[in-house]
Amino acid sequence: MYNQDTDLLFPPRLIPALRSLRGAVWQELVDKVAAQEPAALDRLAFELLMVRLGSCASCQADSYKAMHGCTQCALQIVRRFRGSDHDLVAMFQQALQDVARYLEKTRKVEQSESDYQ
Predict the structure, then answer these.
(1) How many Cβ atoms sit within 10 Å of the Cβ of residue 45?
(2) Domain containing 40: what range?
(3) Which pairs count as long-range contacts for 40-44, CB under 8 Å and 24+ apart, including other chains?
(4) Where are the alpha helices (DSSP H) in 55-84?
(5) Which of 17, 13, 97, 89 minimizes the C-alpha distance to 53?
(6) How far is 32 from 44, CA to CA, in rounded Å?
(7) pLDDT tens per residue, the chain (117 residues)?
(8) What does the CA dihedral 15, 31, 41, 10 come to, rounded to 10 degrees?
(9) Out of 28, 36, 66, 86, which residue is the most buried by the measure of CB atoms under 10 Å away?
(10) Could you write out the DSSP letters of every residue in 100-114?
(11) What does DSSP assign to residue 16?
(12) What is the DSSP-derived secondary structure letter of residue 4?
């Protein structure tokens, strides 16, 4: 059964819906990220955080999570997270570093490829 709310990875359209699920620290992070442009580093890092929390990369179309859709999955993941809001922010900071490192590596590869042309 296919749910129209099921995407391949965490859909950024859900970011604002996650705001009220936790305390002030989380709400501040969500507000900051939701105001960003789609390609902004913070927004990409938040999406990576949610992909990691929800194990989106291993989600199957016929799984329980996929059948209920990304909205329900994301809400449940944030609600059920057992750590503090500060733990989530620390995980976000790690995702931010990972995204920045990946983009820097990608730029170096693109630069070296353009040097050969």
Answers:
(1) 22
(2) 12-115
(3) 41/96, 41/99, 41/100, 41/103, 42/96, 43/12, 43/15, 44/99
(4) 64-68, 70-80
(5) 89
(6) 12
(7) 466 766 678 899 999 999 999 999 999 999 999 999 999 999 999 999 999 999 888 877 776 666 777 888 899 999 999 999 999 999 999 999 999 999 999 887 777 666 666
(8) -10
(9) 66
(10) HHHHHHHHHHHHHHH
(11) G
(12) T
Residue 7 lies in a domain: no
Q: What value does the CA radius of gyration of the chain take, rounded to a whole number of Å? A: 16
Tokens of 92: 């976000």
pTM of the full structure? 0.86
Total of domains in the chain: 1
Q: In the structure encoding, which two tokens stand for residue 4, read together?
A: 């129209």
Two tokens, residue 85 = 């809001």
CB–CB of 45/92 below 8 Å?
Answer: yes
